[in-house]
Structures are given as structure tokens and as C-alpha cells.
Amino acid sequence: MTSGKKTPPELWAERLRAICLDYPEATEQETWGHPTFRVNDKIFAGMGTDDDGLTAMSMKAEPGAQGGLLDEGHPFFYPKYVGSKGWIGVVVDGQTDWDRIADLVDDSYRAIAPKKLVKLLDESRSRESQ
After folding, report:
1. Which residue from 1, 12, 65, 88 has the highest number of Cβ atoms inside 10 Å of its Cβ?
2. Maximum distance among all alpha carbons in the chain?
């Protein structure tokens, strides 16, 4: 019998979900047994836990930013399969800077989403800041 208490990876997935699904037309789809977040059926962020229990997420880095993030070291790493396409991996743990994650997800969404959705996002944020 489980206690119903969520594990840290489940809580972290909820935080990422809240960030990602706040974008226009963003959806969640389980892929490879892990949550991925998409716009126009293209992944802009994903999260998973490996066999060793390490939880990480990946997202498309802003053009030219991948190298600088990798130079920072932990929590950033070059993700398998998508690193060559400009994506960045981020180890998720109790020290994760969720404000920075939100900024990185924003960059990724903007890189993946159609221009009309990015424009819609900018217009929406402009109205919110007034």
C-alpha cells in the first residue's frame, strides 16, 4: 500500500508541467515512458528518470547558448540523441533553480513553436504586464 505521498521526481514533473502547459497550444504526451511537452506535435521539453534514479530534463537551447550552459557544468549536460541539435540537458534535484528552468523552457518553446503562436504569447504577456 502506498502512502499517496508524491516522490521528488513526481513533484518535479508537476513543476515542469505547470511551466510548459502555460504556453499557447502546449500539450503533454508520454513518450518513452516519460512526459514530453509539445507544440504542433513537436517536443519543446521533456523529463525522465534514468535507471540510476537520476532525474533530468531537456529542452532546445536558445541559438548559441548551448556551449555557455555546458561550460557552467552541473546541472547542465550534453543530452544523448538531441545534444547535436542544440538541446541542453539539466539535472533536476533539490537545488534546481525553477526560475531559470522557466526561462530555458521559454527559449525552447520560442525556438520550436510556429511564429503565430510566439506572437500570440508575446501579445498575451504584453497585456498581462499593463
Report:
1. 88
2. 50
Strands annotated E in the chain: 26-31, 34-39, 42-49, 55-60, 76-77, 87-92
Can you give the pTM of this predicted structure?
0.91
Which residues of the chain have a pLDDT value below 50? 1
β-sheet with 26-31: strand ranges across: 26-31, 34-39, 42-49, 55-60, 87-92, 76-77
Burial class (CB in 10 A: 0-12, 13-18, 19+), 122: exposed
The 10s digit of each residue's pLDDT in 3-15 is 678 888 889 999 9
Class of domain 8-119: alpha beta
pLDDT tens digit sequence for 21-38:
999 999 999 998 899 999
Phi then psi for residue 95, to 5 deg, are: -100, 5
